[in-house]
Amino acid sequence: MGPGRRVFAPHLSRRGGRLLLVVPFALIAVVTVVDVLVPPDVHMGPFLIAAPAVTASFAGPRMTAFVGAVAVIAQSAVAVARTSLTDLNHMYQIVATVLISIIVTFFAHLRERDERRVKRLRSIAHAAQSVVLRPLPHRAGPLRIASIYLAAEEEAQMGGDLYAAARTASGTRLLFGDARGKGFDAISEASLVLGAFRVMARREKELPALIKHLEAGVGSREEPEGVTGAGSDADDNTDEAFVTALVLDIPDGEPQVRFVNCGHPPPLLLRAGQVIPLDAGDASPPLGLSDVLSSEATVETFPFDIGDVLLLYTDGVVEARDESRAFYPLTERLMAWVGDDPSTLLGRLRADLQAYVGGHLGDDAALVAVERLEPTP
């Protein structure tokens, strides 16, 4: 989330708000002049009500009230110029302008209050994101890492997609995954798995043992009887919780990557003009479903040499659709960017993905790119 902007409304810049103020004042000036010049049986005064009404759509209550006061003064000036302030027709117009100005000023106050509340919620979401979904390091031993998170909802900062990294005595471990569902339940599951990974990633030497700890965290949160987590569906319960995940171990001194795939889309290896899916021969079940789908964690090993780039992605990327409902062709698009460093690769991929879907994703999407560099002394 970017820093807060000083605005009349969230979608307007400060300069844009000032430019929009020209509209109500120009409207007041034009209506006043025309109303004085037209024949006596033509009355343009009622159009002055539009000035404070328009102002309330983008400005705060003080500016709305000020524009309303100017409109009332203009209406009074028209009355004096044409007849008098005691003229019944002009008196009704002045009273109507006063009442409308008071009403729209009140609505401007409500809108501004709601905007402050939304701004506070954004700040809280940003703080929560920084704690739960911490940024990945740009360098980890001989690895260069880049990551991006694209929220499907404009106001949201994070959902169920997750990633984390931890340095060990022999290399770097990465967790990358996607918690089932959306909203509070998905965020809760993601936070539990991330917490378990951060605690155990350095303690467990073998990946299968680490997977067991991550497995234990899924669905382990407890709620009071009869209380459902906010944002959860009526049919959901914690017994159905699961997380698709990749748990990777990349040793510093060996040109390889070892990982356990727990029901997640396979990583893509970008090497020498090729995009190679690293399909696991026997994928493990998602975290949280080992009791239902009994299976041992299988460690897969693939070459990962200097200059290779490993791309991790969630299904929000490959399931993104364009206007014709066609899925995003990730592998095909990556062919043009083989050889890019992780930051450049993800920047191009992000721009292309957002253009493909018309700027609106149907689901949260996360991407992590990892490049092995020459070892440094």
Strand content is 15-25%
How many individual β-strands? 11
Biggest pleated-sheet summary? 6 strands, antiparallel
Q: Count the DSSP helices.
A: 10
Helix content: 25-40%
Average pLDDT rating:
83
Structural class: alpha+beta
Overall shape: elongated
Task: Report Rg.
Answer: 30 Å
- Sketch the topology as an H/E string, one letter per element: HHHHHEEEEHHEEEEEEHHHE
What does this structure look like?
With 377 residues, the chain is α+β, with helices and mostly antiparallel strands. The chain is 40% helix and 18% strand. It contains 10 helices and 11 strands. The chain has helices spanning 14-20, 22-37, 50-55, 61-82, 88-132, 183-200, 207-217, 315-318, 330-334, 342-356, and strands at 139-140, 143-150, 161-167, 171-179, 243-251, 256-262, 268-271, 274-277, 299-303, 309-313, 365-372. It has a 6-stranded antiparallel β-sheet. Strand 5 (243-251) and strand 6 (256-262) form a beta hairpin. Helix 2 (22-37) packs parallel to helix 4 (61-82). It starts with 13 loop residues before the first helix and ends in a 5-residue tail after the last strand. Mean pLDDT is 83; it is low at 1-13 and 223-238.
Short description:
With 377 residues, the chain is α+β, with helices and mostly antiparallel strands.
Descriptive key words:
377 residues; six-stranded antiparallel β-sheet; 18% strand; elongated
Can you lay out the helices and strands and say which pair or pack?
Blueprint: H1 14-20, H2 22-37, H3 50-55, H4 61-82, H5 88-132, E1 139-140, E2 143-150, E3 161-167, E4 171-179, H6 183-200, H7 207-217, E5 243-251, E6 256-262, E7 268-271, E8 274-277, E9 299-303, E10 309-313, H8 315-318, H9 330-334, H10 342-356, E11 365-372
Antiparallel strand pairs: 1-2, 2-11, 3-4, 4-5, 5-6, 6-9, 7-8, 7-10, 10-11
Helix pairs in contact: 2-4, 4-5, 6-7
